Amino acid sequence: MSRLDLDGLSTGPAQVWGAVRLVPLLRTEPITDLRLHREIYDGGVATVAADRRTSYTSYIPHGFVANWTGDGTPAASYGSQFGDRRDAVECAPLHLPRKLVQRQPRSRAAGGDPVGLRFLPLHLALDGYLALHFGGPSVVWEEWTRRAVRDGLSPRAETAYRGGQVRGLGDALRIFEIHPGQCGVMVYIADALAAAFVVPHPDDYRALHPSLVHDLYGELMYQYGRYGPKSVPDFTVRIAPEYIASVADLRAAAARRQREWAEQHHDLMAGDLLDESYAVRQVYRMGRFRLSRFLPPFALHRAQHIGEMITDGKGRVAYLKTFRLSDKQVRRGYVLDRLAAHDWHLGQTAAAMGIGVEELARRIRHLGFEDLLKDDV
Question: How many CB atoms lie under 10 A from the CB of residue 252?
Answer without folding.
Answer: 13
